[in-house]
């Protein structure tokens, strides 16, 4: 089978911008509005990736998952009612809310879904900060007091990464993306976020955005102090039971294929360009589903990719 690509879904966000135009040459839906997220690969009831060209054009990711699962994706995925990975590009021109996703053992009781994710820093402004975990010594009581007096940011640990860095965000880890980042986010298929602090700002509708203080306090890991960006282990940036993300450099003229020929992968082109054996080209910013037993993609020049797979 040939590589499969999808039409991105663009989401307006109060903290978003227009970097997807500038960096990836994207055509955004409307001029002058802030788009904070491009949902590249998604299979949810309200949001669907749709194949954008080729013989499968017009099919949804859910259609492919339900009707042609073994043919396209491979064997061993019978326990997943929907495609289990959600992939986004985040364009943060302003700070995101300080937030947390509920851990598995609490999510259902809180009315949400667990969400473990990882961030790959595709680009960032000098000095831009990620807020991850708590400052050393901050107690739950300290944190609750900071909510009351509006000083939550003083309790959260800040990191200044560089392009190419990555970090794993397990469910329960307090976090926020600061202004000035373009991030590729690979996550569980979930859309549950509990905001605990939103910098005292107004949303796109001119009203304060909803906070979820009780749910956040129940979900936060209060023993998660001052984490660092995660160094790669070989090619691997992140590996958990929900996804595995590798960064690979493909030299000009060489090829990249599925790590296991009989199972799919998703390839995100970070820099450079790939070509299929049918002549399709996938430039920087492309997301490609490479079906099982698909022919390799060849690098038109030295090309860096993320390759995302589902663990066995």
Give a brief outline of the structure.
The protein has helices spanning 19-24, 61-67, 69-72, 104-110, 140-149, 213-219; strands spanning 6-7, 9-17, 35-41, 50-51, 85-92, 98-100, 117-124, 130-134, 156-159, 166-169, 175-177, 181-188, 194-197, 236-239, 244-250, 255-256, 265-271, 273-275, 281-283, 287-290, 297-299, 303-309.
Describe it.
The chain has 312 residues and is mostly beta strands. It folds into two domains: 6-219, Jelly Rolls; 236-309, Sandwich (Jelly Rolls). Helices cover 13% and strands 34% of the residues. The protein has helices at 19-24, 61-67, 69-72, 104-110, 140-149, 213-219, and strands at 6-7, 9-17, 35-41, 50-51, 85-92, 98-100, 117-124, 130-134, 156-159, 166-169, 175-177, 181-188, 194-197, 236-239, 244-250, 255-256, 265-271, 273-275, 281-283, 287-290, 297-299, 303-309. The strands form six sheets. Strands 2-3-5-12-7-10 form a six-stranded antiparallel beta sheet, with no helix packed on it. The protein has a five-stranded antiparallel beta sheet with strand order 14-15-22-17-20, with no helix packed on it. It has a four-stranded antiparallel beta sheet with strand order 16-21-18-19, with no helix packed on it.
């Amino acid at each position: 089978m040939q590589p499969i690509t999808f039409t991105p879904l663009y989401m307006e966000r109060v903290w978003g911008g227009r970097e997807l135009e500038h960096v990836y040459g994207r055509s955004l839906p409307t001029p002058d509005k802030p788009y904070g997220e491009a949902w590249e690969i998604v299979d949810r009831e309200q949001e669907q990736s749709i194949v954008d060209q080729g013989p499968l054009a017009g099919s949804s990711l859910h259609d492919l998952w339900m009707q042609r699962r073994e043919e396209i994706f491979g064997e061993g995925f019978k326990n997943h009612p929907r495609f289990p990975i959600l992939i986004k590009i985040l364009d943060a021109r302003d700070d995101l809310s300080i937030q947390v996703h509920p851990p598995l053992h609490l999510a259902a009781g809180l009315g949400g879904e667990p969400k473990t994710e990882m961030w790959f820093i595709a680009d960032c402004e000098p000095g831009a900060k990620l807020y991850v975990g708590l400052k050393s010594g901050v107690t739950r009581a300290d944190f609750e007091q900071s909510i009351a007096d509006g000083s939550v940011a003083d309790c959260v640990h800040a990191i200044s990464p560089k392009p190419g860095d990555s970090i794993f965000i397990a469910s329960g880890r307090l976090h926020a993306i600061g202004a000035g980042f373009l991030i590729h986010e690979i996550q569980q298929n979930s859309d549950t976020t509990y905001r605990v602090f939103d910098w005292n700002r107004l949303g796109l509708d001119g009203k304060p955005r909803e906070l979820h203080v009780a749910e956040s306090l129940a979900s936060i890991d209060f023993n998660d102090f001052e984490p660092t960006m995660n160094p790669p282990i070989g090619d691997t940036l992140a590996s958990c039971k929900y996804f595995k993300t590798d960064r690979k450099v493909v030299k000009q003229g060489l090829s990249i294929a599925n790590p296991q020929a009989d199972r799919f992968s998703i390839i995100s082109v970070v820099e450079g360009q790939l070509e299929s054996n049918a002549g399709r080209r996938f430039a920087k910013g492309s997301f490609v589903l490479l079906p099982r037993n698909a022919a390799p993609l060849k690098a038109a020049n030295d090309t860096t990719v993320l390759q995302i797979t589902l663990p066995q």
